[in-house]
């Protein structure tokens, strides 16, 4: 029954699943799990879902002790299904009504710089483009995808700005190049691209998806994990914390990181 419901869910959602806030793969996985749970509730079709079934599912997640962030991802998947079956109202609009406390989602982390340096060195030993991408992350607080694609700059009012490519949610932004260290890494990135004849840091024999997967896998194998305080996302935490120490406002930090909400900086800053 759960397999049948899972197939039904994906068929109903169709291309709409791409509108979710998470990655397509994660969202589809969450949708399948919801369908599996609904099968245990005796539903013959997801179209029979009611508010009580939604409540039971999130009570089940709460009992598992999942993080607020993970539960929020399930809320996105649940709303996607509810919309597909024409029952948006069976899922509360506010995550708090599902027992998801936004405050619990903010978990600032402190990067272990010495371990991140070791990961950086390991990536350079694998291939230069991977090490350069890691340097771009640390220098500008970029996401992995942005670090692979961004290298062009523009001059406005006598100031130099990095044009961030591949921004999440289609929110383009320009970051001022303020330090010599930032200019130096940008020069090395552009020298590498010119020498390899590519259009970005991505190796010419890889597409974007393959490059992202390789970078993530090699980062992890090199010790870049949460447990070591050295996973790639910590570069963004480190940047936000430095900006906060320099007296930069939460609004400016959020804009620098490419977030639409000022409050999200609580996730990064100590």
Automatic annotation (TrEMBL):
Keywords: DNA recombination, DNA-binding. Residues 239-270 are annotated as: Disordered. Residues 248-270 have a biased composition (Basic and acidic residues). GO terms for molecular function: DNA binding. The keyword Nucleus does not apply. Pfam families: Integrase_1, Phage_int_SAM_2. SUPFAM superfamilies: DNA breaking-rejoining enzymes (SSF56349). GO terms for biological process: DNA integration; DNA recombination. Residues 106-270 form the Tyr recombinase domain. InterPro entries: DNA_brk_join_enz, Integrase-like_cat_sf, Integrase_catalytic, Integrase_catalytic_putative, Integrase_recombinase_N, Putative_integrase_N. This is Tyr recombinase domain-containing protein. It comes from Geobacter soli.
């Amino acid at each position: 029954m759960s397999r049948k419901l899972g197939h039904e869910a994906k068929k109903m959602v169709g291309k709409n699943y791409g509108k979710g806030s998470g990655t397509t793969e994660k969202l589809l996985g969450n949708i399948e799990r919801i369908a599996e749970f609904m099968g245990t509730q005796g539903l013959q079709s997801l179209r029979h879902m009611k508010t009580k079934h939604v409540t039971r599912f999130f009570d089940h997640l709460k009992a598992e002790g999942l993080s607020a962030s993970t539960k929020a991802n399930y809320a996105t998947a649940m709303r996607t299904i509810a919309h597909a079956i024409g029952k948006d109202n069976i899922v509360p609009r506010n995550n708090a009504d599902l027992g998801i406390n936004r405050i619990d989602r903010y978990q600032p982390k402190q990067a272990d710089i010495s371990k991140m340096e070791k990961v950086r060195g390991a990536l350079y030993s694998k291939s230069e483009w991977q090490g350069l991408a890691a340097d771009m992350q640390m220098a500008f607080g970029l996401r992995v995808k942005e670090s692979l694609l961004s290298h062009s700059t523009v001059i406005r009012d006598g100031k130099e700005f990095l044009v961030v490519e591949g921004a999440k949610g289609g929110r383009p932004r320009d970051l001022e190049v303020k330090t010599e260290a930032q200019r130096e890494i940008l020069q090395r990135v552009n020298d590498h691209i010119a020498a390899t004849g590519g259009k970005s840091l991505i190796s010419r024999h890889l597409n974007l998806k393959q490059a992202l997967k390789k970078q993530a896998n090699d980062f992890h194998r090199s010790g870049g994990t949460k447990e070591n305080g050295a996973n790639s996302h910590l570069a963004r935490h480190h940047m936000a914390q430095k900006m906060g120490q320099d007296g930069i406002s939460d609004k400016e930090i959020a804009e620098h990181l490419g977030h639409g909400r000022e409050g999200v900086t609580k996730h990064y800053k100590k």
